[in-house]
């Protein structure tokens, strides 16, 4: 079976999922080509698992200070004509299946050319009824408009009595340790000056900040580091807590390593607002009130860490499911995987 795997590269979580799926698909003897869109190629890193991958412009969001989505800039920086050209010229002859991690070019090309498609992404959970006040604003229609697929597999921290799978993340590569004064920070849309203003007030802690920089740099009790998948996971394994936005992938890895989380959702980004509300109800994180409430930050720093909560091997199960023609109902696959993981009990279905 020959597969084209399309990945929305705007967020690192999509790429991380593809990194997990790549060896699992290869282990099933499947031939896979990869296509990435939504980020300039020069901004991609640690791409060795994907071989001779391709890039397209695709669609992406533009963010302002504090992570607020800039609607007008997003509209101006996305070209519908280029998107249509990329969809129309992507030749899928010779492919038996398209997998889309919420990637529009491959998904729409598959729809136009009649190639079977499977969607594997967190965003596909919005096809189902989720708890919270934000879910209704991101409808299944919007999801289908962005990246339509024949079979959609959604991923979340709880099944909510729906055919939703656990998070698709790599198993821990490092033992979970604890450096009590070390806090890992990933807030890519905050300015360096803003981060220094917030965290320099807590001199008893070391804040390890991953950001868009060329060389590591220490400034007071903040250490700025360039993006590195391996370095980031090592710091995640040893830190006393994580401060990040409300992305799905990093939150899942934080839960798996048993680290407390202080989460700052992007303003105006419905997916992140929904994530923040659900993770708070599930007891997975403390959600920031506004930009940065220093009293809230101080209280969070003093909280203990939860126990690690490893997720099952979702990648291996999905790769086998795909190799066997994805005939097993998604609900059956989901039930089997959740039986291997103790889902959070703080939120009951329909709450």
From TrEMBL:
InterPro entries: MJ1255-like. It holds the Pfam family Glyco_trans_1_3. This is Glycosyltransferase. It comes from Marinobacterium rhizophilum.
């Amino acid at each position: 079976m020959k597969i084209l795997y399309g990945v929305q590269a705007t967020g690192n979580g999509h790429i991380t999922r593809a990194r997990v799926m790549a060896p699992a698909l290869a282990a099933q003897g499947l031939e896979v080509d990869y296509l990435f869109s939504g980020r300039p190629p020069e901004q991609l890193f640690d791409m060795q698992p994907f071989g001779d991958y391709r890039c397209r412009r695709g669609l992406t969001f533009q963010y302002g200070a504090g992570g607020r989505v800039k609607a007008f800039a997003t509209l101006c920086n996305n070209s519908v004509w280029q998107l249509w050209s990329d969809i129309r010229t992507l030749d899928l002859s010779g492919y038996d299946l398209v997998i889309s991690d919420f990637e529009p070019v491959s998904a729409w090309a598959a729809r136009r050319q009649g190639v079977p498609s499977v969607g594997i992404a967190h965003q596909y959970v919005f096809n189902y009824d989720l708890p919270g006040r934000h879910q209704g604003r991101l409808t299944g229609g919007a999801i289908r408009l962005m990246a339509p697929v024949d079979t959609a597999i959604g991923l979340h921290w709880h099944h909510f009595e729906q055919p939703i799978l656990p998070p698709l993340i790599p198993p821990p590569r490092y033992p979970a340790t604890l450096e009590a004064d070390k806090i890992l920070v990933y807030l890519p849309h905050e300015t360096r000056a803003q981060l220094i203003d917030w965290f320099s007030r807590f001199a008893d802690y070391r804040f390890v900040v991953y950001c868009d920089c060329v060389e590591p740099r220490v400034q007071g009790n903040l250490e700025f580091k360039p993006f590195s998948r391996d370095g980031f996971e090592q710091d995640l394994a040893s830190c006393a807590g994580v401060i990040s936005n409300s992305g799905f992938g990093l939150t899942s890895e934080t839960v798996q390593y048993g680290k407390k989380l202080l989460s700052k959702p992007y303003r105006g980004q419905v997916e992140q607002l929904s994530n923040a509300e659900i993770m708070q109800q599930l007891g997975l994180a403390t959600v920031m009130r506004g930009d940065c409430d220093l009293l809230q930050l101080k209280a969070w720093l003093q909280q203990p860490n939860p126990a690690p909560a490893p997720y099952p091997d979702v990648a291996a199960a999905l790769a086998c499911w795909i190799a066997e023609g994805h005939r097993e109902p998604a609900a059956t696959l989901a039930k089997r995987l959740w039986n291997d993981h103790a889902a959070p009990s703080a939120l009951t279905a329909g709450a």
